[in-house]
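---------- Forwarded message ----------

FYI, see the Holin record below. Original note from H. follows.
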Amino acid sequence: MASFNNTLSLKVGTAGGTLLSIVPNITSVDVLRTIILAIIGAIVSFFVTLLLKCLTKSKEK
């Protein structure tokens, strides 16, 4: 059981250290860029789905 706790502690410590080293490097510009790209990706995905539905319906007739 002690080795499990040591392994868990090592994993949590590594993950926490990685997170704490990444967080200060994230700027508001990066967050805004990510939000904009996510919105664009969702819109493109929606319209591609509509296009594919139209194309498959016309072939079924």
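H. also flagged this: The chain has one domain: 2-60.
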